[in-house]
Amino acid sequence: DSGVTQTPKHLITATGQRVTLRCSPRSGDLSVYWYQQSLDQGLQFLIQYYNGEERAKGNILERFSAQQFPDLHSELNLSSLELGDSALYFCASSAPGLAGGPDTQYFGPGTRLTVL
Amino acid sequence: GQQLNQSPQSMFIQEGEDVSMNCTSSSIFNTWLWYKQDPGEGPVLLIALYKAGELTSNGRLTAQFGITRKDSFLNISASIPSDVGIYFCAGLPYSGAGSYQLTFGKGTKLSVIP
Question: Is beta strand B10-14 parallel, antiparallel or unpaired with respect to B108-113?
Answer without folding.
Answer: parallel
